[in-house]
Please model this.
Amino acid sequence: MSQSYNRGLVEDFGRWREFSAGMWAWIFHKFTGWVLIGYLFTHIAVLSTAMEGAASYNSTIQGLEGLLMIRVLEVGLLAVAVFHILNGIRLLMVDLGIGLESQDKSFYASLFVTALIVVASVPTFLGGGL
Amino acid sequence: MSTQKQKVETEEKETTEQKPSAERRLEKKREKERERAEQVEADEKADFEENAIQIKVFRYDPEVAAKQEPRFDDFHVPFEKGMTVLDALIYARDHYDSSLTFRHSCRQAVCGSDAFFVNGRQRLGCKTQLGELEEPVRIEPLPHQDVVKDLVVDMEHFYDQMHAVEPYFQSEDTPEASELEEQRQTRENREKIKMSSRCIWCGACMSSCNIAAGDNEYLGPAAINKAYKFAMDDREEEELKQHRLNILEQEHGVWRCQTQFSCTEVCPKDIPLTEHIQELKREAVKNNLKFW
Amino acid sequence: MAERYSSFAPGGTSWLLQRITAAFLIGVLAFHFFQLHFVTHAFEVELAGTQARMENPAYYLTMVSFLIAAAFHGVNGVYNALVNQGIEGTQKTALKWGLTAAGIVLVVQGIRVANAMAGVSIV
Model:
């Protein structure tokens, strides 16, 4: 057999229109996971100002909260966390062997509920102190 | 009748040219046959143009200069009701390009040779109805595997993973010769492993799994399902089940499955692969808890 | 292919722990979000308020468990995502130790911060 042709992985994401529900779920869960772990490190770093006393802590947090960009990012964080939680519940069900027949419907449901929760929370997140 | 009139006219003409009447009759007969044949051909062509299906087939051949860069060839295949993708490929090979290369054998979905990537999904050629597909029908080799030529992919890696799980019955516990007993299996146990025994080694599932694509050492859904069939078989002893679980619970065994469900969706034999893998994960966890 | 040296299956334990921490995190993260965005508003947060919450031993313990669970779940998640993508050999070993170190640093720093907030002297 002479050399064979390796088409590599790149062709995959070019075919995004053909992705199934389960595949989208996997991609989104990974993506939201990376965002959350990145956030966790940042969060602990910000909270570390507490070790320097009230003035540092308060001004850092209130200063950040005063920026519209931060408020918008917080809504994004909420979306990411809520999706990761809801899809995570779906995955726990799959791991327990419950509801495998409707696994794609449960993915769409978690997307929908995420959207609902995010939209409902926007007033609280963007209001007050801005 | 007009024919008679014509006959009379030509007969008159021909009498002036002095041709024998028998020859004249035969000439006329041949002419009519020719006309009829042309008419039939024209009809068939019109038919063909209305009912031909266009297929685009991936071509690659490292030994032919024109095909060293992969390309797509168009074939127009006459449509017949009930025609499958495999039928179309065979027609294209037989009538248009005899160098078109693809694996096929039983044409009834039991040999597993003709798994292709058709219109963006892994399917068996012999089991996919051409009429149900959107034109033009794109036929490509299975993704995530090296292409040898045209639609033929290298299946060695797939076979390696299958063999790694020892896919054969290993029970040493044969009954005494004097007793002439069989190793019996209950109906319920047979039911349990029924779906997992349907695997035809086509490779569609492994080619649809993103983890199998990224992680070369992952056993893959087909291999794990094969292991499931034997691990869950009551006729094998407990130590054998332990041995099988040992293979499955390595880092690149069942734990790599991220429940993407693509394998279950593309399996041409409708095997619930993800469900079986999940069951094995639970078995492995329960098995390990015993040691704590 | 079957090289097992102990009954401790590396894949199995981290898989199970990932699920257990997941179940715990669902509850605690939801609680944390509610606490810091609906009960108290984020823009109103001051050290005084934080200290009042953290001085409650039950709340303090919950937050520390939250930190440990989240650190494990996140670091383990990243490790597995990369193994799925096919990382192997030296790169993989380097990643494993790097991630473990990052996780430990995160937990240690987090506990120091928690102590500062709760007024505990071990910093």
Chain C has one domain: 12-118.
